[in-house]
């Protein structure tokens, strides 16, 4: 049964990937990439990796197509230059793909108990994390505590991304008094969409908070929560306009928050060092090591959530501001 | 099988049938509006039937509450998405495919 599911999901993935490569309509390609994300999320669920599936569903199928749509709104729906079907590029891709397939022959079978991944540190995580960390969701233990250093790196990458986007696009936020272009106003005339989104924005934010603080017990955590929270604000911005969103959200505060999340994460590590343990060793945060782990994980997940949410909103606002700027120049 | 399981099995079968028929309709119908009719209506009802079937299996647990929330979310978002899609198709100038006859009671506008 699972084999059947795997085969059908994987063949749909392949079909979607080919569709993305062939399509000349960039809007369709972005839609397909969103479907690709959803399919991979399903695939991860069949592999029992629900946390990864959650991330893929919220990031791969949710926010990244949204940001790509915002990009398409700026650059246009169709490729300006015709497709170049360069033979050397195709050869290179086929060769790389063949080598990758060849390499998979050496990979141990999925779920093989003797695989290196299963014999190295995984037994310790599985056997000891219950007593060392003391939270039910082992994935969060690994992500936030055992591999806290890596996650710190990931948050820094997310922060660096927004610094890059803002450096490239500048702070082209709409100045006061500037009106939205007609096309955007038309979109905001959808009465049904506006009413339904008004009903849904608050529950989506509540759900984001649930995902944020329930990450210790079930699938979830700062990355997913941040993206979901930002999605709620972005929906509001899409339907009610940038000016309405700016009344609620101050961009300067968002920029400070994006940096604050990373800072919060790093300072947990520094506090651990000041208490005489290693960087990001949460044992040092409280008299009881397990309590220390709990505090540490909650605080760093909060840092991750704040940074991710702020970064996603900032990138969207930068794109939207650019769009308004362009429509004024033309 | 207990009665609850039988009810659940029937609902799941109905839901699966509706989703499948929606998928076939999406492939077979000729234009955007009839395809949306197939996908939107059967998908909403199909998802509702499947969720109801799962609810009967779940019993009085937290899973039931979560399923109800998913149901509410789908009931809000599904029709909204269909509506938006239809409106977008209409605004971009897609005419519904007709058999050439004018619809009864609407003699003012001819079908193109």
From TrEMBL, chain A:
Similarity field: Belongs to the CPA3 antiporters (TC 2.A.63) subunit B family.
Family matches, as Pfam families: MbhD (PF13244), MbhE (PF20501), MnhB (PF04039)
MrpA C-terminal/MbhE domain mapped to chain residues: 114-175
Domain Na+/H+ antiporter MnhB subunit-related protein per the UniProt entry, residue ranges: 192-314
UniProt xrefs under InterPro entries: CPA3_antiporter_subunitB (IPR050622), MnhB (IPR007182), MrpA_C/MbhD (IPR025383), MrpA_C/MbhE (IPR046806)
Key word Signal present: no
This protein's name: Na(+)/H(+) antiporter subunit B
From TrEMBL, chain B:
Protein keywords: Membrane, Transmembrane, Transmembrane helix
Pfam families cross-referenced by the UniProt entry: PhaG_MnhG_YufB (PF03334)
Transmembrane parts of this sequence: 6-27, 48-76
PANTHER family: ANTIPORTER SUBUNIT MNHG2-RELATED (PTHR34703:SF1)
Name listed for the protein in its UniProt record: Monovalent cation/H(+) antiporter subunit G
Naturally occurring in which organism (per UniProt): Spongiibacter thalassae
């Amino acid at each position: 049964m699972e084999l059947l599911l795997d085969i059908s999901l994987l063949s749909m993935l392949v079909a979607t990937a080919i569709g993305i490569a062939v399509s000349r309509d960039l809007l369709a390609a972005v839609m397909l990439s969103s479907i690709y994300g959803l399919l991979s999320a399903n695939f991860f669920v069949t592999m029992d990796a629900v946390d990864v599936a959650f991330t893929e569903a919220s990031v791969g199928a949710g926010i990244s197509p949204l940001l790509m749509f915002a990009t398409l709104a700026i650059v246009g729906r169709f490729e300006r230059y015709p497709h170049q079907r360069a033979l050397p590029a195709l050869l290179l891709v086929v060769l790389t793909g063949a080598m990758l397939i060849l390499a998979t022959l050496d990979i141990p079978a999925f779920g093989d108990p003797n695989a290196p991944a299963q014999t190295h540190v995984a037994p310790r995580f599985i056997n000891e994390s219950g007593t060392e960390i003391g939270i039910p969701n082992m994935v969060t233990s690994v992500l936030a505590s055992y591999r806290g250093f890596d996650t710190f790196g990931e948050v820094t990458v997310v922060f660096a991304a927004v610094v890059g986007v803002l450096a490239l696009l500048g702070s082209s936020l709409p100045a006061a008094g500037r009106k939205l272009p007609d096309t955007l106003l038309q979109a905001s005339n959808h009465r049904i969409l506006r009413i339904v989104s008004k009903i849904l924005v608050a529950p989506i934010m509540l759900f984001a908070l649930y995902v944020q603080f329930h990450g210790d017990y079930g699938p979830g955590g700062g990355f997913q929560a941040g993206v979901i929270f930002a999605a709620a604000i972005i929906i509001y911005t899409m339907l009610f306009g940038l000016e309405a969103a700016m009344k609620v959200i101050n961009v300067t505060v968002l920029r400070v928050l994006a940096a604050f999340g990373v800072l919060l994460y790093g300072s947990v590590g520094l506090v651990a060092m000041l208490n005489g343990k290693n960087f990001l060793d949460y044992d040092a945060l409280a008299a009881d090591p397990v309590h220390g782990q709990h505090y540490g994980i909650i605080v760093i997940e909060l840092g991750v959530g704040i940074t991710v949410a702020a970064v996603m909103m900032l990138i969207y606002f930068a794109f939207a501001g650019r769009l308004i700027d362009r429509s004024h120049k033309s | 099988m207990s009665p609850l399981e039988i009810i659940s099995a029937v609902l799941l079968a109905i839901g699966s049938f509706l989703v499948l028929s929606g998928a076939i309709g999406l492939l077979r119908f000729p234009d955007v509006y009839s395809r949306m009719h197939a996908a939107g209506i059967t998908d909403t009802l199909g998802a509702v039937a499947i969720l109801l079937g799962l609810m009967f299996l779940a019993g009085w647990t937290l899973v039931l509450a979560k399923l109800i929330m998913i149901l509410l979310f789908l009931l809000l978002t599904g029709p909204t998405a269909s509506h938006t899609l239809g409106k977008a198709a209409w605004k971009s100038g897609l005419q519904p495919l007709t058999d050439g006859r004018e619809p009864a009671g609407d003699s003012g506008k001819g079908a193109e």
